[in-house]
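Lab notebook, bench 4. The sequencing result for the construct came back, and we need a structural model before the next group meeting so we can plan mutations. Quick request posted to the team channel:

Model the 3D structure of this chain.
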Amino acid sequence: MTAPSAQPSEAPSGKRYASGEEPEASRGFGTTSLWTVLGAIIPGVGLLRAGRRLAGGLVLGLFLVGIGGIGVLAFVPPDDLAQFAVDPANLYGVAAGLLVLALIWVGVIIASHLSLRSYPATVVERVAGGFLVGVLSFAISAPLALGANYAYTTASVISTIFDGDEGTTPTTAPTSSDPWAGTDRLNILILGGDSGVKSHRSTSVGARTDTVMVASIDTHTGATTLITMPRNAEQMPFPPDSPLRKYYPNGFYKPGAQGAERAEYLLNAMYRNVPARVPNNVLGKTKDFGASVMMQSVGYALGLDIDYYVFVNMDGFKDFINAIGGITVNVNYAVPVGGHNASPPYPEQKPESWIEPGPNQLLKGGYALWTVLANYQAIAATGEKNITTNIPRTLLPAMAELGLKVKGTKTRSLVLDPSSGFRSYAPDWNWVRAKVKKALSETAATATPPPSASTTPNAPASSSSPAASSSSSPSSSPTAKPTKSDDLSVVCSYHPKDYKPTKR
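Done. Here's the predicted structure in token form:
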């Protein structure tokens, strides 16, 4: 007698199952819930368990390919990732992709549960199952939606801040093999200004740039020198071939001016006052005329060609520091907040308060503003309302790669103040140019150029700068002192024994 062949079983609904599959009615709610969870963690598993081999296999395959793709990212060079991350088009694509992925993943969770659910399902099972699917869908989609929001916001900020191709471009257009071909040194003017209620200044008179720095970067090695100028520097010069020389033949200066009138001719007043007195088209098309004016003047004063500028709203910087919960820094000596020493013709002004010495000090907005003026890289995400620049968006991939080089080197600092021999009220610009040249040489001496570097990274200034050929030495000024530029990694460490107490 021949044994009967195995026949597909039949569920109450009429659905027929292949031999070996588990009928819906035999699955308890606990088993269904377990496989729904597994199907949410590993998409496709739940569908395979429910007998949906084609759909389950396709979903699982795509999931594994995606996991493999993420693993490949670990082998992608960091500079390539950085270049990808600064392209708004890529970031918008990532945002859209994450949203689509969230929708598909949620759909797979729902389909898996419906395929696994026993028949007929009770009201309790339907309600509990709906709750489970809702929780799983939220747990999966929320991080993806958040990532999409971050990508979209970042793309929007980059598109707003870097919204044009203005500014001085490198001698040779960036290429993938050598993004800085023909450009040995990149000089960026960093301006920190404020106005309005928080700074106790009227917005009608514009911003004062109390922070003026230049980041001079060797494009071959990433060796960087930060040059800080005092906000009360006088007689800021203009290049001989600049149209601004016609209006200020002796520099930004008014002979005989005293008191408040003289203060309107200090470096920190140039950004707002020159545009108010000079036709704004004398320098051609500019994104920010005040910043372009300072690029010419500061660059000529230092003997450097300034390529780009970055303007940071310092009121916004304080908000940023508060938003991240403050920053932790080493304070080696009491730091005055506000105030200044006596400097003819200005009398001494007492500080508003002091930042006390100590290691790992947590500083919030206002105090951090007085302590981290050199750390501008950390405020790149302050947003479109607080940062403006003429760095073109097309240059961002090359800038990202250069930033990685900078991160791998020691940054040195040159501060032009009385301790280094600089006199704000009677500056010797030839002496300043010699000091800058020496500081750049000291920075270059600490950097090791890559083997492929074919050009000399020590060039301190572009040869096109009228001041770059100055032959004066530091001894040409009666105030010169044999000081060196500072290593910021040493300066920012905690070593209070190296300092004398500050008089209160």
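The chain has two domains: 20-161, 185-498.
Will bring this to the meeting.
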